[in-house]
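[job 4471] stage=fold_predict status=RUNNING
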Amino acid sequence: MSKGASDHTPTKGVTATALFAIAGLHVLWGLGSSFPFRDREQLADSVVGTSEVPSLMACIAVASALAVAAMLVIGIAPFSNRIRTVVLRFFAAGLLTRGVAGALGRTSMLSPGSDSSRFTRLDQRVYSPLCLWLAAGVRRSI
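[job 4471] inference complete, writing structure tokens
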């Protein structure tokens, strides 16, 4: 087993669990759930910063990327170590970029229209720190 696949097991487990949980939320949202929000309008405003939730396909695409990243973090995806490393570095960089943009109140530069006051507040307090934490967890799992 490679060094990346055997070291930092607790970090990898927590990071993968969080990625799988967030992927699950995206699947639920794509299928029409507003969990944990009151309704779809509140979900859109809180999570996207717009008036509409993204399409089923967009939610499934995000969920799939998160699930693949989780599988790569814990080493259960059928990829070579080289591909695993490249994909996880790319994913960590994406999470880092998203986290920094949100912390600076600039998420709308990455996702135009994501600028409602509720979203911006949640982004700076919850989503950006989560992205930064996940970026560190993914990076540490390499």
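[job 4471] summary: Residues 8-137 form one domain.
[job 4471] exit 0
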